[in-house]
Amino acid sequence: MHKINRSVRLGGAIILNLKRGVWLFALAILLGSLSHTAAVASVDLSSGIRYVSDSGTLSDCSAKAKAALESYLPGATESSPGSGEWFAMGQNIATGAASSGATVRCYPLPKGYVVTFICAVQLPANPYPAHALCLNIAHKFYGGAITPLAAMPTATPVPTGCATTNLVGNWVSDTDPKLTFNMQLNGDLTDNEGVSGNWIIDGETVTLTYYGNHTLKLSPDGKHLSGPGYNLTRKC
Amino acid sequence: MTRISRCRIALLAVGLIVAFGSLCTRAPAALDMNVGVSKVVANQPVSACNASAKTALNSVLQNAVQLGGDTGEWLAFAAPDSANGSTAAAAIHCYPVGGSYLVTFTCAAQVPPSPDSAAALCTKLTAAFDSGAR
């Protein structure tokens, strides 16, 4: 009877723990998905700016259109030679993808020409709206106040191995110079014999997972790791 | 460590891999812009262009508006999706040229998630415009 009761209790405990495990699984998915929820992104299009010149030719307009576009976006091209339709795209360096574009169209008039400006940006990847871009291109074309546009974000430099704010690079044991570690950008580490582990840094506290977990401290100059079992020095 | 604890840790690890792994597979969205067709339609008033532009924009996108009143410059955006704002937009401009009109198409799309590239969007708009202009 005792054995049966024990089995029932054990079975209940297993079910309870499995339920907890499933909850943990769901929680992990939820936390993970929340952590990388994409910011609301959208296309912003600006149209409506036009300018009429009583003098000048289509080629005058084209030259100014190309120059105005290239003040903000690289490599303006004409859709077909002599069409007067100019187009250029700009890239968000941090994401490596196009985030802005503009087209300037010139049309000849019996006297002079008319020029129109249309711009599109992808928000929030682009740091300024389409209208701001179009206004500046138009003002560059026919004169007017130029408002500085927000700077395009630049790519985060890949740690070189000598940055003191992370552990990426090579480390040598102070007690055994043969023991070296290569800490990688993705949090992996490999020792001189090819044994792998992981590292995590939180402020000055470093957790090294290498034959167990070891909590070490990073020195203020970022060049030394010390703690129970391991004392390491960074090699740039 | 008990078998049950190992099971819990394994489930947690699988959950984290599933959740964070999906981040790595997401393609970066990029702006796509297209300078579409520009053409002169002979012997037609600009009002016909305006009517076709509005119809075309409303059939492919939504809520076409003429900028600043009677300018002949039309603009519309795609319906916002659940996760983003509008991921596509287009402008159709109509200009009178004597007794005819000039019409231009300009399109922009954020790909992904927009199912259409900017060029495909402009092609759809041109077809819709042409069918409305007949």
Question: What can be said about this structure in brief?
Answer:
The complex is a heterodimer of chains A (236) and B (134). Chain A has helices at residues 2-35, 58-70, 130-142; strands at 42-53, 77-78, 85-92, 97-108, 113-123, 169-173, 180-183, 188-191, 196-202, 205-209, 213-218, 224-227, 230-235. Chain A is α+β, with helices and mostly antiparallel strands.
Please supply descriptive tags for the structure shown above.
heterodimer, A: 236 residues, alpha+beta, TATA-Binding Protein, Lipocalin, 3 domains, eight-stranded antiparallel β-barrel, five-stranded antiparallel sheet, 36% strand, B: 134 residues, 3 helices, 5 strands, 40% helix, elongated
Topology summary:
The complex is a heterodimer of chains A (236) and B (134).
Chain A: H1 2-35, E1 42-53, H2 58-70, E2 77-78, E3 85-92, E4 97-108, E5 113-123, H3 130-142, E6 169-173, E7 180-183, E8 188-191, E9 196-202, E10 205-209, E11 213-218, E12 224-227, E13 230-235
Antiparallel strand pairs in A: 1-5, 2-3, 3-4, 4-5, 6-7, 6-13, 7-8, 8-9, 9-10, 10-11, 11-12, 12-13
Helix pairs in contact in A: 2-3
Chain B: H1 3-25, E1 30-41, H2 46-60, E2 62-66, E3 73-77, E4 88-97, E5 100-111, H3 118-133
Antiparallel strand pairs in B: 1-5, 2-3, 3-4, 4-5
Helix pairs in contact in B: 2-3
Instruction: Output the helix-strand order of chain B.
Output: HEHEEEEH
Distance between the termini of chain A: 69 Å
Number of domains of chain B: 1
Q: Helicity level of chain A, as a percent range?
A: 25-40%
Question: What is the assigned CATH homologous superfamily of the largest domain in chain A?
Answer: Kinase associated domain 1, KA1
Beta content of chain B? 25-35%
Mean pLDDT of chain A: 83
Look at the structure and give the mean pLDDT of chain B. Answer: 85
CATH architecture of chain B: 2-Layer Sandwich
Most extensive interface between two protein chains, with residue counts: A-B, 53 and 48 residues
Shape of chain A: rod-shaped
Content of β-strand of chain A: 35-45%
